[in-house]
Amino acid sequence: MAALQTSAPPAPSGGRERVRIRNKRTVAQRLRHDWPLLLLTLPALAQLAVFFYWPSAWNIIAFMDYSPHRPFWENPFVGFAWFERLFANPYFLPALLNTLKYAFANLLFLFPLSIVLALVMHSVISTKVRSLFQSVVYLPYFFSWVLVVTVFVQVLGSDGLVSNWLLGFGGDRMTFTSDPDSFLFLAWLQWAWKDAGWGMIIFLAALASINPSLYEAAAVDGASRWRRMWHITLPGIRPVIVLLLILHIGGILNVGFEQYQLQRNAVGFQTTEVLDTFVYYRSVIGTDGPSFGTAAGLFKGVIGLILVLVANNVAHRLGEQGIYQKS
Amino acid sequence: MATPSDRSPLRRRSLFKVAGLGAAGAAGLPLIAACGDIESGGGTSQATDGFDFLPTYKEWPLPVEPDLVGEPPNHPSGFTTYPDPVPAIEAVPSNSGTFEITVPMWGEAPSSDDPYFAAIAEASGGTTVNLRQADGNTFAETSVQWLNANEFGDGIMLFSWMLFAHPNFQETVVNSFYDLTDIVKGDISERWPLLAGLPTASWGQSVWSKDPADPETARVFGIPGSFSGGPGNAMFARTDLLEAAGQAMPTTVEELLDVARAVSDDANGRWAFGGTDYLTPQWFGLAGGDGWAYIDGKLVHNCERPEYTEWLEFRRTIWDEKLVHPDLPSGTLDGQALHKAGTIVFQLDGISWWQGFIDQTTAEGTGGTIAPLGALSAKGREPLVHVNTGVDSWTFLNKDLSKEQVEEFLDFANFCSAPYGTTEYELINYGIEGTHFTYGADGTPVFNELGTSVVQAPVNHKTMSGHVQQFLTGTPEMVQARFEYNASVKDFAEVNIFEGMRVEGPADFKSAGQVLIDQQNDIAFGRADLSAIPEMVETWKANGGETGREHYTAAYDKLHG
Predict the structure, then answer these.
(1) Which chain A residues are Cβ-neighbours of B169 within 8 angstroms?
(2) Assuming Cys at both sites, which of A266, B375, B498, B505 could form a disulfide with B383, CB separation 3.0 to 4.6 Å?
(3) TM spans, by residue (chain A) (predicted)?
(4) Strands (E), B406-459
């Protein structure tokens, strides 16, 4: 937006030069000047309008006793009744706490893993090894959760590969995939296998933007590999790390659905009940309907917004760019 | 990078944001203040008999009588021979319409280019019915959204058990589907003799009221599927494996436990059981359906009865003693494959697995024999057997169709209702001779590979409407055995205490039921102790159980006076 506020050239006026700063152009002038740029934004705006703003407007049904079979205006307003029902449900709080537990575990253990993977990848010189490494860590992202869970059961389940191998040596069957106490570790293994490679990609892009001459200069000055990473690499990708961290925090309540739903029977609902499964079982299976689900979704959205604003504010206070550059 | 901010947390821009949000909130307050209570999700009850607007029943004479004569509905008759089929419809209509019907599909959907579908269109009089096949495992839940969005083509087929996934199916029915009443009312035997031959009870169960509180608003909205009685599920034993292990078929729960211990070998990868969650409650005398029994003058739910504890104790015992496949809780097991392989000896499945096992093991050459366990009970009680109590499914037509289109589809439904022993039945259920099946030595159609993949799909035109009579058919030995099995359990069939009424429970009751299922699994798989049951039941009562009792009691009182 800085381009819109450029100073106009000084206007000559007889003997006395009067400098007149024009702070603002008219809307018509702006349109005439920027129409190609505005045109370019239209597809994105249309996409946002159709798939984000229009559906977001329907959040209003969280305050209605909504039925899709009635004309919209005939749906009665019920105020915060659905929210009251949501908060009064005895299984809501455990689901929220589980959600936060998995979200923070993901943030603490998976987020750094992606950075580490990116650093390892960045340090590999051989193209062949890089390609192999990239494929191995990156491909599982495209597997469905059904496949991921099935593979884990086939390998680590009670009748899986490892269990049968242990039995052959006179051991016992593993109960790892059906033990509620170790589910957090199991979930972390599944995240690591499925998602860490994908998270690595963005950090790799950030690493590529670091000027190689910095490394050369540091090497000439005798900096070790570790010191180059600490003083060049990590500061170079720090803005990206902070940006992704803030975005991650904003979506912290979106821990996913399939992973927990698929393993609900295996380790029990008290371990796997997160907000999304809670809403599914209340709103779809339990037939509380779309208003209840929307109220829960709106709650998640509000919490996410607050967390993003707080995290961004903290980032700015720490001198980071955050999700936008402060003017 | 920006320099650290030293300004107040509530800056000018933030203040505007907060003010904006506050203004929006304030503007909404009057709106919110003038609000009512939530009225949806209270459940419904609907009478399903005593109507004067149903099609007049006119018996459709069978071309050939069954050689095994039972006592329908819980003991259906059967055919052990394959009769020469004769045409059921003499005056084939001349139609040309095309319909898109959404149906559930389990397994791989066949190509719509197969000659099977063209042959059906031609034989039915020119009506093309294209199947929009969607995953059967998620069909019940996803169909809710398709119906809300009116995106289900010209019609949708729903099994009766799928209705429980819908938040308010009564409201969905009357707002989404075509009201057939004026078309099918009275004598329809001239144009649709086979539909007129469907049991009146089937049509009665196809009725929903536009206003649940006003019986006068009741109308016919669905084309009923078959009315099949008798047990719909069974615990199938690998009789060949029992024989090899020197074990007899158990006749009580106690005997079953002994046999299970004898045939299980955890270290070598063989277990007695796969799933045991449904059907097994009947061994302990627990009710089917929504779990209500009328005891000592009031409705009592399964979880409130002492037999419930016995049932969970049984499930916990077989888990603790390693008589159940250890990966069962993962939900990733293919029970039928394990049963064929002999990895599990008892397979809990739909009754159709009897024929399915024979077909598959014959085709694969793997061998083995199975038979269902009879009417078991524990502690010497009178056995109880859960049986089907109504139509299996409905085909609902989109309300946006024209009357002429609906009438044409009813022509097609009439074609699909042709019973065993007719050429229409043979085409729909076996396909084209030489292309999908050949006649075996005993004259019975035997599927080839194409027939197995295309025609033997569990849902297609064969389930589009009910047959005028439902028979036991298939491999002669299986039909004979199933006939005898039905005869042996029919006297223990559970009486439906809501006969003549369809009751949809309140949302809270359904949610509490889901939590109860989760807690049952916790106990069954060793994650919680049996001592947790009283607390579970109290939680269930407080979170929807009592609401459910009130609702079902009101329905029961209305039905029984």
Answers:
(1) none
(2) B375
(3) 35-54, 102-125, 137-157, 196-215, 236-257, 292-311
(4) 437-439, 445-447
